[in-house]
Amino acid sequence: MSMATYARRAGLVAASGSVYVGAVYLGLQLYGGDKQGQGRQGNADDGKKKSYVWDPRRTETFQKIAHAYDDEIAKDELVMGINLLRRALLYFHAKGDVLEVGAGTGRNLSYYPGKSTVKKIVLTDSSEKMLLRAREKLNGMKRHERDRYEVMEADAANLSAFPDDSFDTIVDTFGLCSFDDPVAVLKELGRVCKPDGKILLLEHGRSKSYEGLSGYLDKHAERHAKNWGCVWNRDIDEIVDMSGLQLEKQDTWHFGTTYYVVCRPSKKA
After folding, report:
1. Rounded CA gap, 162 and 164, in Å?
2. Count of CB atoms within 10 A of residue 143's CB?
3. How many CB atoms lie within 10 A of CB 47?
4. Of 8, 156, 231, 239, whose Cβ has the fewest other Cβ atoms within 10 Å?
5. Nearest CA to 171 among 261, 58, 36?
6. Angle at 198 between CA 60 and CA 175, to 5 degrees
7. Sign, Cα dihedral of 101, 103, 108, 109
8. pLDDT tens digits, residue range 125-175?
């Protein structure tokens, strides 16, 4: 697909911003925004009350919701143009041997370029039930296409199965919101990425442009983290900066709450 085509379709993504804000508001009202709220800051040990913002329990939560996950978020992603962003990120930047962390149910499977561009794709996640859904999708592919995929359970912060400089491209879409230590994850991705490789991120986080929107995300972060294992108000800029990765490209969508990021590994001494 040409750059011109993506440029035209990008208009749809931009126009969906207002729909997104309305969907966030209505969704939280309908599905239980936490009336007491949970600010961006807080106390990781606030006494007796458990905080899902500080401890998302990603694996435990995704094990519970894996069976319905795709059905729950498919319409939202379509309206917001997330599918276009997934496709663009992989079409323009993925190549060679690819590692995807936080792969979940395999929502990126349809968007990887062909074998002439991407030779191998290793899908990893800490939730075996999410990966089970990914395997089901792979089983629906033609054999010559699914042969380039490998699926394995793994902790994104500890990829000990892979030596340094193993992959040309590393992909994480909507994972930084739920990893226990997102900075540690990015550092580990930098370790297993080849020096001339790319680390591709599509994430949601707090808006730097619309304080009111970030305030709303802060207010309802606790309930959202409890239901989805996702801390949606994390500071993506800060996380990437603390990881030491070299930022090559960054765009934001949906009033600054969706981050499209291309990084390079930090320069090794």
Report:
1. 7
2. 7
3. 5
4. 8
5. 261
6. 15
7. positive
8. 999 999 999 999 999 999 999 999 999 999 999 999 999 999 999 999 999
